[in-house]
Design brief:
The chain has 14 helices and twelve strands. The protein has about 350 residues and is α/β, with parallel strands linked by helices. It has two domains: about 110 residues, Alpha-Beta Complex (Aspartate Aminotransferase, domain 1); about 240 residues, Type I PLP-dependent aspartate aminotransferase-like (Major domain) (Aspartate Aminotransferase, domain 2, 3-Layer(aba) Sandwich), CATH 3.40.640.10. It has a seven-stranded mixed sheet, with helices on both faces. A three-stranded antiparallel sheet has the order 9-12-11. The protein is globular, with a radius of gyration of 21 Å.
Amino acid sequence: MINLASDNVVGASREILDAIAAANTAPEASYGTDRFSREAEARLGKIFEREVKVFLVATGTAANALALSAFTPPWGAVFCHEESHIADDECGAPEMYTAGAKLVGIRGEAGKYSTHDLEHALKRFPRGVTKAVQPSLVSLSQVTECGTLNSLDEIKALAAVAKRYNIGVHMDGARFANALLSLGCSPAEMTWKSGVDVLSFGATKNGALACEAVIFFDPKHAKDFDFRRKRSGHTLSKGRLFGAQLLAYLENDLWLANARHANAMAKNLSEGFAKITGFRLPWKTEANQVFAIMPKRVSDALSQANIFAAPWYKESISLPRDEQIKEDESFLRFVTSYATKAEEIEMVLKTARAA
């Protein structure tokens, strides 16, 4: 079986499992006050070139929802892409953790929205008008749900709009390392130097067992986050098992090596698909996700060969305006990981070409 439906289908990197086992051998302080978690925070400070406040949690859903709650009151509004992960895939967690704040979806191709569309959405909710929710936060995804990236200029432009309205900027970085390598910039450049206030720093999809970090670039925004995390059930009593994961993830640039391999495998797959007659790639492959429209007979052949991808939304609003998926076509998402083998990619392409 070759399963490319998600980068969550593979296990954890051996280095991270070894680090968990090592951290398990001796007593250590609890509830996130352990030396592993403190050292992980210090390491992230060096990586991001400034003092940061870091909170470790078990899931990306918790990281996103809790990060949003730090900026957004129950009467606030979070502005995001209409098909973003926080809008479509968090089962209402952002609304729950913010005690009822509104998510305002913005349309746009390729999982992104423009500064013009953001400003138009913000103007719908005037500041100080009692009957309207109050703008509180802008959220953008890096990588987007379409496997695309916001360029540094795009991040800066969106953040500049947010700052004009005196609201914060959140980045959903579930695949942060994949995006970073594709843009060829530093972590600081892709975040706080471009106007990002809080980051959901993903590790689980890129080799961790279960570890995400909420990173605040100004500690004042994190003043009550200890209580938020505890109330949500994400303050682990044995927090060293979080810290050990993150340290191993960052050690010797494992996080970058894993993402570099995943991106390379996606590039190979994307380039191979582009050469097959009847295939269309609606969005550029910019990280480790490949979206392909293909004849249904090909998707059937892949399935019969025990090659699995994730069926995608044929009516996605992120598709180019002139793109229409026919009844006899399938729209699939393929996600590569640190564990994807080159021979697996070649088998997928060989099966597709034969069909």
